């Protein structure tokens, strides 16, 4: 018996990507469309509207708002006829010690990085269960497992995301829904622009300390996301695929 060849073609698939206005999110939207998918691109930044096309429906929304998840799924269904893929990419970070951190600081990080993923995953699962198929990809970090000073809130949120990935994967695999995550390393994006004068430059410099000797480009992480969303990853359930240039190996 010949085993069918699995491909990463995403023709006729419908996806939601959060945090889609720039960085990894934008690169993921662009790559999924290249591979045939139609995408709801969600971001609280109105710049996401620039992605509008016959294959991309922008949605300006804050992932921490419970209604945003309802709106994203409804838009996918109304505009493109269903939902097959969810990419929980929206994320923020602060660099403060626990002693210097306010409750608002802590809550804001957890709300975006963990609660937003929960809300969108819940609504996606409800939409995917009747069709007995689907893929959820969470964008984690080396901070799913490692930490260093000043990232306590971020590390806690990414640890929560890793455990959400694992627990949810066990709940929904019987319905044909796969849940996995990518553990991203330093990526040259604008996530640190509110913390550092040259956020992307800081990430490039920090990434030079990894075993691979550089930070990643957003599309390199998007490639892993697209793989996890595709049938090529059909046997991956609850995995956190580390794409961090060897940082977690060296730390371990």
UniProtKB/TrEMBL annotation:
<dbReference type="InterPro" id="IPR036291">
    <property type="entry name" value="NAD(P)-bd_dom_sf"/>
</dbReference>
<keyword id="KW-0560">Oxidoreductase</keyword>
<keyword id="KW-0520">NAD</keyword>
<dbReference type="InterPro" id="IPR002347">
    <property type="entry name" value="SDR_fam"/>
</dbReference>
<dbReference type="InterPro" id="IPR020904">
    <property type="entry name" value="Sc_DH/Rdtase_CS"/>
</dbReference>
<dbReference type="InterPro" id="IPR057326">
    <property type="entry name" value="KR_dom"/>
</dbReference>
<comment type="similarity">
    <text>Belongs to the short-chain dehydrogenases/reductases (SDR) family.</text>
</comment>
<dbReference type="Pfam" id="PF13561">
    <property type="entry name" value="adh_short_C2"/>
</dbReference>
<feature type="domain" description="Ketoreductase">
    <location>
        <begin position="13"/>
        <end position="191"/>
    </location>
</feature>
<dbReference type="GO" id="GO:0016491">
    <property type="term" value="F:oxidoreductase activity"/>
</dbReference>
<protein>
    <submittedName>
        <fullName>Short-chain dehydrogenase</fullName>
    </submittedName>
</protein>
């Amino acid at each position: 018996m010949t085993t069918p060849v699995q491909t990463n073609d995403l023709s006729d698939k419908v996806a939601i990507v959060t945090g889609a206005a720039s960085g990894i999110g934008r690169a993921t939207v662009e790559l999924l469309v290249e591979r045939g998918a139609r995408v709801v691109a969600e971001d609280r930044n109105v710049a996401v509207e620039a992605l509008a096309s016959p294959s991309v429906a922008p949605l300006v929304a804050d992932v921490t708002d419970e209604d945003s998840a309802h709106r994203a799924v409804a838009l996918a269904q109304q505009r493109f006829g269903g939902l097959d893929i969810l990419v929980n990419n929206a994320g923020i970070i602060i660099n403060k010690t626990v002693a210097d951190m306010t409750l608002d600081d802590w809550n804001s990080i957890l709300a975006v990085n963990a609660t937003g993923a929960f809300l969108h995953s819940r609504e996606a699962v409800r939409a995917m269960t009747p069709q007995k198929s689907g893929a959820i990809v969470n964008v984690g970090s080396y901070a799913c497992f490692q930490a260093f000073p000043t990232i306590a809130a971020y590390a806690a949120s990414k640890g929560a995301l890793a455990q959400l990935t694992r627990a949810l994967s066990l709940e929904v695999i019987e319905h044909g829904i796969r849940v996995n995550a990518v553990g991203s390393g330093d990526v040259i994006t604008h996530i640190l622009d509110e913390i550092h004068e040259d956020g992307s430059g800081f990430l490039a410099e920090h990434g030079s300390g990894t075993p691979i000797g550089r930070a990643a480009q957003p599309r390199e992480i998007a490639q892993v996301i697209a793989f996890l969303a595709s049938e090529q990853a059909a046997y991956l359930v609850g995995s956190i695929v580390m794409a961090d240039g060897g940082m977690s190996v060296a730390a371990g």
